[in-house]
Amino acid sequence: MADQQHRRSDAIVVGAGLAGIACARDLSRAGLLVELIEASDGVGGRMRTDRRDGFLLDRGFQVFNTAYPQVKKRLNLRDLRLRPFTAGFVAQTPSGRVRIADPTRHPADAANLLPGRVLGGRDLAALAVLTARDALLPADIVKRASDRSASAALDRAGVSPRTVDDLLRPFLSGVFLETDLETSARFLHLIWRSMARGSLCLPAEGIGAVPAQLAAGLPDGTLRLNAPVAAVTDSGVLLKDGGERPADRVVVATDAATAARLLPGLPVPQSRTVTTYYHAAGASPMDEPTLVVDSTLTVLNTCVLSEVTPAYAPPGTALVSTSVLGGDPPAREGVVRGRLAELYGTDTSAWTLVAAYTVEGALPVMRPPWPLSRTTRFAAGRYVCGDHRATGSVQGALASGARAAREVLADLSRR
């Protein structure tokens, strides 16, 4: 970094989350001298993993989808040592516990999808058509379709209100971080497509392994940690320690709130907040890597992470992850613990709370009509990228960072 500090960068990227790393890598590969400046002590933004007392604690419950095009393009999946979730979920409904699984991957559960077992014949047909359409049609057709809410799209597809309320709303609320299914149907269809075509997994060493692998591909001296930016200036950026870093081109790749502060006048969407509780149990309450969802919506979802990846907990201990909408007010953990006892059918009073992570700005609010991508150009030589400029997903963040790099290079070529 010392050599670069004495040279004027061609571009500065502020924020070493997925979007920022992707942008910095693409600009570097194009031959530009790039500085990637990060306020914290590590890369990843919201996508980080802490190690505490033998546990791996992702900063909020997260999953990794192998079907995303940007993931396939940029990451070595073998080196991540991915461990899959069950291709489906268990739902606690008013009529009891039901299991929904992909019969092509879990043939033993295929009987649950016989008409009348869990779903009626019309719902089975509607979901089969929806899945086939989203999985098989070109993505551009999905992207260009007229937009509406996810709720309206499911109704239009012929899915019954009961199936939506008992099964799909509980599951999708954990995906969208909202319970009204007001999120863009375009995003619903792209998510449905990615789940049909790929697998939901976790890296063996935690979700933070994903940005770490991406950052390892940066040229030496590109990344600068523990360097919060106070302002984007006419000549580059001003650091909070008073230092200045000059560059003609600055890409702000932070969360939406920080981007709005650094680029006054930038319109940003509202965001969703989620809290994840991590409990340690002496024995696993569910001996499979399956997501459990709750039709009462007391919790969004819960799962035993150590059943997905054993390294998430020390030997002889299970790590249970549970997410809820909003923050962590007093007494909420007790309510969650009580609901977990019902969901898992076990006594949770002896479980230990290992950590609670409240993630503000976890996802952008994506009401229709929601553009799946938008320009990163903000002003002359100033750009902004991140999932809030695309979709709230790993794919959205990486694609927005890639678009920022393309637009920087296109503007340079016109000069």
Please give a quick description of this structure:
This protein is α+β, with helices and mostly antiparallel strands and 415 residues long. It is 33% helix and 25% strand. The chain has 14 helices and 20 strands.
Note the topology.
Blueprint: H1 2-5, E1 9-14, H2 18-29, E2 34-37, E3 49-52, E4 55-58, E5 64-65, H3 69-74, H4 77-80, E6 82-84, E7 88-93, E8 96-101, H5 121-136, H6 139-144, H7 150-156, H8 161-176, H9 185-197, E9 200-203, H10 209-215, E10 223-224, E11 229-232, E12 236-239, E13 244-252, H11 256-262, E14 271-281, E15 291-294, E16 301-304, H12 305-308, E17 318-325, H13 332-344, E18 352-364, E19 377-379, E20 382-384, H14 394-414
Parallel strand pairs: 1-2, 1-13, 2-10, 7-15, 13-20
Antiparallel strand pairs: 3-4, 5-9, 6-9, 7-8, 11-12, 12-13, 14-17, 14-18, 15-16, 16-17, 19-20
Question: What attributes does this structure have?
Answer:
415 residues, alpha+beta, 20 strands
Structure description:
The chain has 415 residues and is α+β, with helices and mostly antiparallel strands. It is built from 14 helices and 20 strands. The strands form 4 sheets. Strands 1, 2, 10, 11, 12, 13, 19 and 20 form an 8-stranded mixed β-sheet that branches. A 7-stranded mixed β-sheet has the order 8-7-15-16-17-14-18, sandwiched between helices. The longest helix has 21 residues. It is globular.
Instruction: Quote the average pLDDT.
Output: 95
Number of helices: 14
Q: Class by helix and strand content?
A: alpha+beta
Number of strands: 20
Q: Regions with pLDDT < 50 over 5+ consecutive residues?
A: none
In whole angstroms, how far apart are the ends? 29 Å
